[in-house]
């Protein structure tokens, strides 16, 4: 008989690991809710063109990594490779974009990219992200970075910092793109094949290349600060001021551009310790809503790579105290079938094994499951209208009558 294994690049999250995931998910959701964010849930499947238009058809995500296929009617469909495009599509389609106010939304779920599997990187991976629509004020950029700063503090991560930069408005960005194109065209022979192609299609994306030769080649390139208009300079200055006011550790990286086409002005990445890859990143995308068919509404957001974050957080789960119910004999099983659901109805955790018959096998199972107490009911206990509770750590036993037993059980939990 065939033995199945998971598809390459996918991963299982097993029960013990899920406890850690749930702890981190709770920190994330509670933090962003304190900032006024509300959850939005979008489909895993979207039109391929949504991602081509938002992320950029020449990006690595679209050209190399997207999971795309045709459905039964021949429509081009894709599994979402990131969350922002879907949230923007829903923001427009739902009519939220017609309300003139600031919207704060957060999302969480699996994304898909046909990427090379490695430590902390999978082909199905999870992202937690936020999107803020409705204002171009730089303090909102500062607020979302500060929110990330608060999250990593709550998770007790050490030696973290942000890299920040500005790409300027569309005019500044396009002007800088032309300068980079001219600078790197003269040094094309030193670039990788992908970056040679990017000189024509998307020069700024070369600055995001991780190839050491390419990084060396653009290390002396002009920086965008030299071509920013006054409004973009003031915007970035105010953003930095907000970070300083809130003691956010950051460094300005003049070559930070991020690998997606939709960013304008502020971009940032979060690094922890000696990790080579960012665990979270984001920025401002003031023209994306309009680009996807909505009104001209500015926005800013970020996404957290959950697998990378999970690997850095230290967590020792505190197990919920629970009882193991040992019923020996038919009558005891019938009584236990009533009791176990009465206890669970009172939010008291109870496990049992209906197949076990002997007391010794029940006690072994109670030890194996890690139960704090074992409730023992046999024929003698049924006759006496009482049952035994054994402390599995100390071995101490007490007897409790069936009458009004739930209050006595609750006292043990205290």
Describe what you observe in this structure.
The chain is α+β, with helices and mostly antiparallel strands. It has 15 helices and 16 strands. It is elongated.
Keywords:
alpha+beta; BirA Bifunctional Protein, domain 2; 16 strands; 39% helix; five-stranded mixed sheet; 21% strand; Rossmann fold; 2 domains
Query: Which structural class matches the secondary elements?
Result: alpha+beta
* Mean of all residue-level pLDDT scores: 91
How many strands in all? 16
The domain count comes to 2
Shape: elongated
As a whole number of angstroms, the C-alpha radius of gyration is 28 Å
CATH class of the largest domain: Alpha Beta
Number of helices: 15
Instruction: Please estimate the helix content.
Output: 25-40%
Query: What proportion of the residues form beta strands (DSSP E)?
Result: 15-25%
**What is the third-level CATH name, the topology of the largest domain?**
BirA Bifunctional Protein, domain 2
Poorly predicted ranges (pLDDT <50, ≥5 residues)? none
Q: Architecture of the largest domain, CATH level 2? A: 2-Layer Sandwich
Map the helices and strands:
Layout: H1 15-34, E1 38-39, E2 45-47, H2 48-55, H3 60-65, E3 68-70, E4 76-79, H4 84-93, E5 103-112, E6 124-133, H5 138-154, E7 160-166, H6 170-185, H7 193-201, H8 212-218, H9 230-245, E8 250-252, E9 266-272, E10 280-284, H10 288-291, E11 299-305, H11 306-312, E12 323-327, H12 330-345, E13 350-352, H13 359-369, E14 373-377, H14 379-384, E15 386-391, E16 397-401, H15 405-413
Parallel strand pairs: 1-5, 7-8, 12-13, 12-14
Antiparallel strand pairs: 2-4, 3-4, 5-6, 6-11, 7-9, 9-10, 10-11, 14-15, 15-16
Helix pairs in contact: 1-5, 5-9
